[in-house]
């Protein structure tokens, strides 16, 4: 029985199974997971997550009650749920990633998608079953009065399900994504929209990364549920219960990031990159190949910058790291192809015998990313919409002399807007101008802005975010 529990779809570790059936364990990636892994071990938190792969399922089958920490793995307290693969696929791919993610990031191409038909009805039932599996596991593992912190859009129904099972618990839900405005959230079938909101309102506290996303959530509660919203006091009252709305920004642990970025593997990637690009100036982007990250418009902006500024030909290189993501979804596979097409057009148009204007890397490589951060002159972060965006925070920490071109639609813009070069992510020409502005910004100005950006980026490390969530639960 545990007194503090965290629930998220993706957990802190993943397993792969070799052809011979041997399991090997890997730490999960991403700022949140690495930040939380440390805190959760210190505070003796039980982490509940889903088995995502055959390797994970193999490990769970060998673990008593799905408790990997009791099967001899060095994970911190961890329970992985082996949800039937078909149910998991429909809940994760069809509902969470193809529907909810699209809604919150305004990604639909509305003449064609979405359409909510009988098939969606079955997918929604799987999403309910998957949420139910989490709620049941949490109810089983939580001690009396325990605090349960439920993460993200995958698990929106869990708080209400858990409350009806275990009214003694204190429950929070946190959205790491933006929240859609009511007119876009209203694309969802009415009963689905209501169930999602009521699911989250089952929590004592619903947390968001910025005021803007918290405000949109409150607007949706008002328009879909006719709930009573107190904007100043940040509460939503519905069906006789009041839920507090919290805003908790998330930044990076500067010291841990620097420690990692000074390791020899990063240093040798730096040397290799330097060898490749010489003393040319570097424009760097690092993303999952994710529709909301707006990589294609970023590349077109770079092309427009090259067209407008022949004086930079041969003197600048764009390092674009676009790592594989969600390849089960056709939209993501098509997007990956579009990124590659656009990159080769730029190569065809501008490359010369001794100058590669663009290096596109599609293999995930964390130490190489850290090396690129350290070498950047300009960081390009131009998502269509983003809950926060930690690249915008890691960049200034590891390269305090770089300029940051940042989409005004990223949550990070609320904190970093004064010292970044803010752009409308749809405005390719403005993005091209900002890239140029970043390159020609006087060194002193870049250093002053960079220093302030780095300080803001480290003001809210994951440990602090976690402690604030816990404190909010009383
Ligand atoms: C976003 C979400 C996370 C998710 C991550 C990676 O940051 O907020 O919940 O884990 O993307 O996506 P994936 O589908 O690979 O877990």
TrEMBL record:
InterPro entries for this protein:
Glyco_trans_20
CDD domains (UniProt xref): GT20_TPS
* Superkingdom in the source lineage: Bacteria
- Residues annotated as coiled-coil are none
One Pfam short name: Glyco_transf_20
Q: Report the family membership.
A: Belongs to the glycosyltransferase 20 family.
What's the protein here called? Trehalose-6-phosphate synthase
């Amino acid at each position: 029985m545990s007194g503090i529990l965290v629930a998220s779809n993706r957990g802190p570790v993943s397993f792969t199974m070799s052809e011979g059936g041997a399991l090997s364990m890997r730490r999960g990636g991403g700022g949140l997971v690495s930040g939380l892994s440390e805190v959760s071990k210190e505070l003796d938190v039980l982490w509940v997550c889903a088995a995502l792969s055959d390797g994970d399922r193999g490990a769970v089958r060998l673990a008593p009650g799905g408790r990997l920490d009791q099967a001899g793995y060095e994970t911190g307290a961890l329970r992985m749920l082996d949800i039937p693969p078909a149910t998991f696929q429909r809940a994760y791919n069809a509902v969470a990633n193809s529907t909810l993610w699209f809604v919150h990031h305004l990604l639909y191409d509305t003449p064609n998608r979405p359409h909510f038909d009988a098939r969606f009805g079955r997918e929604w039932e799987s999403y309910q079953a998957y949420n139910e599996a989490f709620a049941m596991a949490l109810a089983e593992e939580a001690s009396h009065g325990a605090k349960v912190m439920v993460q993200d859009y995958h698990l929106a129904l869990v708080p209400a399900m858990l409350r009806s099972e275990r009214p003694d618990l204190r429950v929070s839900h946190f959205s790491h994504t933006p929240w859609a405005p009511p007119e876009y959230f209203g694309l969802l079938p009415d009963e689905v929209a209501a169930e999602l909101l009521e699911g989250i309102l089952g929590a004592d506290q619903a947390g968001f990364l910025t005021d803007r996303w918290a405000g949109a959530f409150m607007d949706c509660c008002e328009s879909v549920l006719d709930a009573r919203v107190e904007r100043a006091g940040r509460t939503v009252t519905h069906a006789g219960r009041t839920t507090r709305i919290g805003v908790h920004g998330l930044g990076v642990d500067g010291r841990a990031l620097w420690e990692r970025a000074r390791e020899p593997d990063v240093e040798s990637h730096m040397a290799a990159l330097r060898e490749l690009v010489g003393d040319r100036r570097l424009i760097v982007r690092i993303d999952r190949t994710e529709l909301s990250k707006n990589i294609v418009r970023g590349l077109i902006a770079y092309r427009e910058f090259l067209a407008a500024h022949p004086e930079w030909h041969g003197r600048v290189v764009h390092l674009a790291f676009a790592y594989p993501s969600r390849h089960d979804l056709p939209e993501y596979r098509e997007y990956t192809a579009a990124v590659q097409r656009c990159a080769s057009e730029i190569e065809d148009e501008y490359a010369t015998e001794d100058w590669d204007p663009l290096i596109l890397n599609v293999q995930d490589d964390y130490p190489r990313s850290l090396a690129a951060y350290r070498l950047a002159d300009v960081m390009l972060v131009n998502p269509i919409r983003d809950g926060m965006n930690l690249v915008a925070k890691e960049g200034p920490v590891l390269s305090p002399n770089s300029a940051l071109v940042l989409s005004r639609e990223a949550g990070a813009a609320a904190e970093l807007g004064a010292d970044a070069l803010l752009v409308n992510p749809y405005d390719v020409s403005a993005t091209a101008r900002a890239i140029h502005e970043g390159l020609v910004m006087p060194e002193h100005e870049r250093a002053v802005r960079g220093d302030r950006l780095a300080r803001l980026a480290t003001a809210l490390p994951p440990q602090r975010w976690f402690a604030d969530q816990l404190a909010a639960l009383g």
